[in-house]
Structures are given as C-alpha cells and as structure tokens.
Predict the 3D structure of the following.
Amino acid sequence: MQGLIRLLFAGVLVIVAGCATTPPPGTLDLAAVRPIPLDKIEWKDSPTGTSATAPLYGDPNKPGPYAYFNKWKAGNMSRPHYHPNDRYIVVLAGTWWVGSGKKFDPDSTLPLTAGTVVVHAGKQIHYDGAKQGDAILLIHGMGPATSTLAEEK
C-alpha cells in the first residue's frame, strides 16, 4: 500500500510540475511571442489613396529606427524623389516596379518580385510603385525619412 501511495504522489508531482512549467504543445507564451495574422494587420491609406501603410516600430517622421509595411496599390507610382538616409526594403508580395533618375519613365522601371532585397541609397533619386497588381513591401531605415521631390520637368 505504501508503494502505491508513493507512486500516486510521484505521479501527481510530475503532473503538477509539468503544468506549472511547460505550456501544452501548440501554444505560445504571448508575453514572449506575439503573432499578428496577416488579416489583422491594420492598414492606413495614404492621403492620395495610392498606397497604404502599417507601422511595425518607430516613427519614420522622427529620428531613430523605424519599420513599416507599405502596400502600393495597383496602377500607382511615385514621382522621382529621394530620402536623406538609406532605406532597406524587402518585397513581400506582388511585383514592385523601380526606376532611377530625375526623368519619370514608368516604362523603364525594373520589376522586383517577392523575396527581393533592395537598398535605396540616401540622397539618390528614384521612383517606384505597382503596375498591374498590388505590391507589399517591408521598409526599414533611420528617420526622419522625409521625401524630397526631384523630377526633371
């Protein structure tokens, strides 16, 4: 009888210890990992409606690091411009069309597909956007990330 009691007590201790220290398989400690499903990302349209953004961290309008998702809507492109600092960009979905120089020429843009990594060098003139379908980008850099128009008329 004493052996059975010890065995039951040991079993209870193992179960209590397991429950106290380890979450069940397939669950996350939301204090450690906070997933955001794609359909829960909160997009905010630009004032012109040509693109939308969803911030990840920081503020591109202030000094310091920032990152955000940018969604170029189909049929929209920026005009030639530059930013004061380097920006690092990953194409996440769709095709992103990129051109360089002061002359706006969408027909000369290069198509960049999902998985492409791009560095926009600070103070270098470029233009970009989406043609047939939306393009989703991840953009990271150091703020402030102002945009200065530089189109040759």
